[in-house]
Amino acid sequence: xxEGMLLPELDEESAPFFAYAAAGELRVxxxxxxxxxxxxxxxxxxxxxxxxxxxxxLSGRGRVWSFAIPHPPLLPAYAEVAPYNVVVVEAEEDPTxxxxxxxxxxxxxxxxxVDPSSIRIGEAVRVVFSSPVDDGQxxxxxxxxxxxx
Length: 149
Known about the structure:
Blueprint: H1 15-22, E1 27-31, E2 37-38, E3 53-57, E4 61-68, H2 76-79, E5 86-91, E6 94-101, E7 124-129, E8 133-134, E9 139-140, E10 143-147
Antiparallel strand pairs: 1-2, 1-3, 4-5, 4-7, 5-6, 7-10, 8-9
């Protein structure tokens, strides 16, 4: 991973997601009252307004729903690896749950290691987790995606 990458700011709602990622688990927030899954995590259910929360373990499998290929000009840490991919992955358990990340060949592979012209909408992927990445504000483990053969 490169220095200068933008990392998520952890707050009361998002911190559990990254704690589970550090344990190698892809979990989503779910309303304990009505069962509605929500990504990104929020303090209240948008369906029933409950503040009761649980974290549901997902399989980590999904499909590429969309993707983009950023090109310079970008922030310096990203410009050096451009062009690279940013994928939107729909979860196998619920296609309305979508995650944004990168398609890589290995958990700690560089952002530009997958040929962007080879990415296909609908292709099967599965989650992998990076080594801890530290931006000086604290380390986080990032979910990333590899092709699911």
